[in-house]
Specification:
By secondary structure, the chain is mainly beta. Helices cover 13% and strands 36% of the residues.
Length: 165
């Protein structure tokens, strides 16, 4: 057998093994967690204290999702890190969102007003970290550069304003 073919086959086998190996814990996606305010007490972290304002009504579900602040992950289907949900309360709600490690992240919030699990464009609300403008030109998906923020080893506090049509 040709030495180049053997070397190429060996490299391909190593690559397939690497792809099949489980990702490190900080690279996992799609973990639904419950709200635990204790994770944002002083000295804990890394975490983000997310204060959501201008929730228009009680009822339905507020969903908060964290993403890595990268082009590859931001708002991509299945690329959220953690998700937590709670019954919506009009006004302001605060959540403690842990993050896997210090780094750059983005937060997306959705208010499913009737709690049906579907996006109702004329009823539901949405918002993102850094409160970027959401309009027809960006189809509700502003660049990761506009929503990304740094989280150190402690607790970062951000405020997100809900928007409805």
């Amino acid at each position: 057998m040709n030495r180049n073919l053997i070397a190429t086959t060996g490299i391909a086998a190593l690559a397939l093994t690497a792809l099949a190996a489980p990702a490190p814990a900080d690279a996992q996606y799609r973990q639904t967690i419950s709200h635990d305010p204790a994770k944002c007490t002083s000295g804990k972290g890394p975490a983000v204290r997310v204060t959501i304002t201008d929730i228009k009504e009680s009822g339905g579900i507020i969903r908060v999702q964290s993403y890595r602040g990268t082009k590859e992950d931001w708002l991509e289907k299945g690329k959220w890190i953690y998700r937590m949900e709670a019954p919506a309360k009009a006004g302001t709600m605060t959540f403690c969102m842990p993050v896997p490690k210090p780094g750059v992240y983005g937060i997306a919030v959705r208010h499913d007003v009737n709690g049906n699990g579907s996006t109702d464009i004329f009823k539901d609300g949405g918002a993102m970290s850094n409160n970027p403008s959401i309009n027809i030109f960006n189809l509700g998906k502003p660049s990761y550069k506009k929503t990304a923020f740094n989280v150190g080893s402690g607790v970062e506090s951000i405020s997100i304003r809900m928007r409805y049509r």
